[in-house]
UniProtKB/TrEMBL annotation:
Keyword Transmembrane helix: yes
Pfam families assigned to the protein according to its UniProt record, in alphabetical order: Glyco_transf_90
Keywords: Membrane, Transmembrane, Transmembrane helix
SMART domains: CAP10 (SM00672)
Signal sequence, start to end: none
Name recorded for this polypeptide: Glycosyl transferase CAP10 domain-containing protein
Residues covered by the Glycosyl transferase CAP10 domain: 171-417
Database matches in InterPro entries: CAP10 (IPR006598), O-Glucosyltr/Glycosyltrsf_90 (IPR051091)
Superkingdom, natural source: Eukaryota
Membrane keyword on record: yes
Listed transmembrane segments: 20-42
């Protein structure tokens, strides 16, 4: 009989729910998922007629530029945008670094429009599947809303665009883009076999869609779950990694999340420890209403790096949890992802993560844990390589550089002159951050870029040659087959 003491709070136990209380948690969770909630942080800033808010640089800038702080007037209700923003990019250091390998996928994402360019008609055909239109003209951003985004995704994504404009003033070309803020991809290839697809930006993509992948909103914070901006979060996770040596971590595969949003997550619950089986997995359900009441003290990401192995499983589509899971130094197990975000396509199976089949996930999780516990040094090294990938390749400077190169390459394909729609509204630091309070304002301030970059963007790598890309994809497929057939490399 498997020992399941200490895991009675988990959502699933074999094929049955552990307690009646879990049923109520599902009801609360469903109600919660449809609502938008905010946690008020104590704001110790005194409101004055001219309130100068201190800003925090979100990455180390070796060559700091003159700062343009956020200035809120009229009792923090500033609704107009100032004219003192820098308009010219003048770095102190002209030297550049090479962009990470995953930047090459920008060329692939824009390839559908390589021969035709992007026309006004193509853009407008994406309107009915987008949440909003973003326009940039002369370094000023405008937004025209079409449909409400879930929670505050649109706000934090737009805030990220403003940081890019501040980081590289005068360098972002005039453009118009359509943006979809949901989970599931919207530009299906099967719908555009005889006509050019609309260019729609999105947080994820998959092989059967044309969605253009863009960094997700959580790089600037997730207010509803009290998750801080990426640079602070990854720092906290790195500090958390130091608390328990890898060999002293619990020798199981850990997952904690909401299992009700996708069947594959419900299937993962069946791998949890029970009286009949121990698949070496420890699965926990997050009851968000309870966590909200506890001010999310039990869901801090830096406190979830206590297991040797961590599981990533998709939800409605891709999940923002992926980067947090891989950053833990634990050997990350990815359950056959269908979707990808902007940085994961250059990750290599058995180098940065361990692939798990969706069809036989319980057996494969157990095999992976058994292999890791029998090969501790190799498993630890695999986990460290995945974590290093996050730390080295997802620095905020690279996130902004990815945005810069993607938008620049996109603008080169445009075959029309961008214009400001009648219903569009100019957005800036002041009219976004000044009128609000609580955690949203705190996250906006914390993720704020307060000066231009002292160095240029990284150097964009060339596109893949067709044969090289084919070989790359085949190599990844072969490595996944190694796991499926239990044929492990000796390297």
């Amino acid at each position: 009989m498997a020992n399941n003491q200490g895991y009675r709070e988990s959502f699933c136990n074999g094929k049955r729910c552990v307690s009646v209380a879990s049923l109520f948690s599902i009801i609360f969770l469903l109600l919660f998922a449809e609502s938008t909630f905010f946690i008020d942080w104590v704001d110790h800033t005194k409101t004055t007629s001219a309130c100068l808010l201190k800003t925090i640089s979100i990455f180390n800038n070796p060559n700091p530029q003159p700062q343009s702080p956020l200035i809120c007037t009229n009792g923090n209700s500033t609704a107009t945008c100032p004219t003192y923003y820098p308009s010219k990019f003048e770095p102190d250091d002209s030297s550049t670094t090479s962009c990470p390998e995953y930047f090459r996928w920008i060329h692939e994402d824009l390839k559908p429009w390589e021969s035709t360019g992007i026309t006004r008609d193509m853009l407008e055909r994406g309107k009915n599947i987008s949440n909003y239109r973003l326009v940039i003209i002369d370094g000023i951003a405008y937004v025209e809303n079409y449909a409400k985004s879930y929670q505050t995704r649109d706000m934090f994504t737009t805030w990220g665009i403003l940081q890019l404009l501040r980081l590289y003033p005068g360098k972002i070309p005039d453009l118009e883009i359509m943006f979809q803020g949901g989970d599931v991809t919207v530009v299906e290839k099967r719908m555009f076999q005889d006509i050019s697809p609309p260019p729609v930006f999105h947080y994820c993509g998959e092989k059967n869609s044309f969605d253009i992948v863009f960094p997700d909103w959580t790089f600037w914070g997730w207010a509803e779950l009290s998750i801080r901006p990426w640079e602070k979060t990854i720092h906290n996770i790195q500090e958390g990694n130091k608390l328990i040596k890898w060999k002293d971590r619990l020798p199981y595969a850990f997952w904690k999340g909401n299992p009700t949003v996708a069947n594959i997550r419900k299937d993962l619950c069946k791998c949890n420890v029970s009286d009949q089986h121990d698949w070496n997995a420890r699965i926990y359900n997050i009851q968000w209403q309870k966590e909200k009441a506890r001010k999310f003290q039990n869901t801090k990401l830096e406190d979830q790096c206590t297991y040797r192995y961590k599981i990533y499983v998709e939800g409605h589509a891709w999940s923002v949890s992926e980067k947090y899971i891989i950053a833990c130094d634990s050997m990350a197990m990815l359950i056959e992802p269908r979707y990808y975000d902007f940085f994961t396509r250059s990750m290599v199976p058995l180098k940065h993560y361990w692939p798990i089949s969706a069809k036989n996930m319980c057996e494969e999780i157990k095999f992976a844990v058994d292999w890791g516990n029998a090969n501790v040094e190799k498993a630890e090294a695999l986990g460290k390589r995945g974590s290093d990938y996050m730390v080295e390749n997802l620095k905020m400077k690279f996130v902004y550089d990815y945005m810069f190169h993607l938008l620049t390459q996109y603008a080169k394909l445009m075959r029309f002159k961008p214009t400001i729609p009648k219903e569009a509204v100019e957005i800036c630091y002041e009219n976004m951050a000044c009128p609000i309070n609580g955690i949203i304002k705190s996250l906006l301030i914390e993720s704020m870029v307060n000066s231009s970059s002292g160095t240029p963007p990284c150097t964009m790598p060339p596109p893949y040659k067709p044969e090289a890309l084919k070989e790359l994809l085949q190599e990844k497929e072969n490595l996944i087959k190694q796991v499926k057939t239990r044929v492990m490399s000796n390297n």
